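Running this now, will post back.
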Amino acid sequence: MTTTAMKPTTYTIDATGRTLGRVASEAAQALLGKKSVHFIKNEVLPMSVVVENVAKLSIPERRLNEKEYVHFTGHVGGLRTTTLPELLAKKGVEYVFRQTVEGMIPRNKLRNARMKQLVIKG
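Update: finished.
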């Protein structure tokens, strides 16, 4: 059975009271297709992953104090760091969750197509 003949499926994850990394890794595995019996390494499966209650994620105090996101602008002296509380205040939990899942997806031609299948509900 090819992936074009498969029916689109939905994989739902409830994030209430769970930690950020555990929910993100479960979502990344589902996006990769590892939770499907029709897993094909070099194709994107017709599956959408819905993560509900992202605002109710449990983020440990240690993670809030120590986690930093690093971005390089490409210019000399352009290394920018942002702490997790700053990013949560500025862009919200949905953005942080999307960045976490995106970091767990392999960097290849299928990455953008897989990330489009991720639906985050507050």
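The chain has five helices and five strands. More later if anyone needs it.
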